[in-house]
Write a structure and sequence with these properties.
Layout lengths: L1 H8 L2 H13 L3 H4 L3 H22 L6 H42 L1 E6 L2 E6 L8 E5 L8 E11 L1 H4 L5 E4 L6 E2 L4 E4 L1 E6 L7 H11 L4
Antiparallel strand pairs: 1-2, 1-3, 3-8, 4-5, 4-6, 4-7, 4-8
Helix pairs in contact: 2-5, 4-5, 5-7
């Protein structure tokens, strides 16, 4: 279990791309967006000049001392860029996972009194679908018939299941959660692109780590 978790946190492709981005982000036009690290980059450039000057003149300290200061500052820059790149890569991977969940979750839509299976991305506001035990809820909506125990841990992080039922204050369900028992009939309450998962994707993609 521990090994699987480690693998998911540091995938080889993400690490290699992040190492590359660590150098790409050294561009001053990129670094200036982060004032603190931009200041460190300016100091690193100054120390590089001082280090070269100390080769012919030791009035600014010994060459080895200046070299070590330059190396430490440069490594600090690379590490900060690497950490930011890793965060961005993991955020992108998380957004891709959420997008896949939104697009590929099957929905048992009621059309003309019959059940047809469609992709969750095809559901529109006002459509009605059915979910049974074991089904992932394909879209945000309101329960119009039935009662069910629902696992909302994928959204809220809370491991304990909750009860959702028609006609009460707790009739709302969220796309991406899972029905654990019974059967419910749900009416979609959001337009395509406005669901909770869509907002989560936009939030993850728009997040940046400084």
């Amino acid at each position: 279990m521990k090994n699987n978790k480690s693998a998911s946190l540091f995938q080889k492709e993400q690490v290699m791309d992040s190492i590359k981005q660590s150098f790409v982000k050294l561009n001053p036009r990129v670094m200036i967006k982060n004032p603190i690290m931009f200041t460190v980059e300016v100091c690193t450039a100054i120390m590089f000049t001082v280090m070269l000057y100390s080769i012919v003149n030791d009035s600014q300290g010994s060459f080895m001392y200046n070299l070590w200061v330059f190396v430490i500052l440069f490594i600090t820059l690379l590490f900060a860029n690497f950490a930011e790149a890793i965060a961005e890569a993991r955020g992108k991977a998380q957004a891709d996972t959420l997008r896949k969940t939104r697009e590929e979750t099957p929905a048992k839509k009621i059309l003309n009194g019959k059940l047809i299976t469609v992709s969750s991305s095809q559901l529109k506001k006002g459509d009605i679908f059915v979910c049974e035990a074991g089904d992932v809820i394909p879209a945000d909506g309101e329960i119009i018939e039935g009662l069910a125990s629902i696992d909302e841990s994928a959204i809220t992080g809370e491991s304990a299941p909750v009860i959702r039922e028609a006609g009460g204050d707790k009739s709302s369900v969220t796309g991406g959660t899972k029905v654990l028992s019974d059967q419910i009939k749900v009416m979609v309450s959001t337009q395509p692109g406005e669901s909770f998962l869509d907002k989560m994707i936009a939030l993850v993609e728009g997040a940046s780590r400084q």
